[in-house]
Amino acid sequence: MGRHPPSGDVRSGRSERRGARDRLQECWDRTSPSDHAQRCVIAHYLADQQTDLAAETDWDERAVAEHAQVEESDFTALGIDSAAGFAPSLHLNLGDDYFRAGHLEMTREQLAKARSAKDLLPDDGYGAMIRAGIDHLEQRLEEAVTRGTPQAGGSCSAR
Asked: Where is the composition biased (Basic and acidic residues) (predicted)?
């Protein structure tokens, strides 16, 4: 017989996610529209806190749009070594959103962008995780194209 968490644990998890989402939303609201690096990172993490795919996609699209406005040095103050090295994760997450929504061509476009920046990833656990995520999404996309439809569910993103 499988072990199920008490319902209080499930409610606590939802409450924690909602609390994190609310705090991140407050951070977003306090940032200046010209503070692209902070807004990119906040949107990236806000996407993770969404329970609805459309909302998650919206935040991932915002993260990518904000990233397009940053200079390489803008992320340094946030403790991120490379703006360019952050791009593969952003494109992987957005591509995964598009895949789960059944938008295969948009998935393919994001995968191409993630792959083109893959060499900018560090040679550490984070870089390996993002590379594996890119490879996994690419494999799922190929399988979906072969079958003619994406397989619903599951996530390839390395959030």
From this structure: 11-34
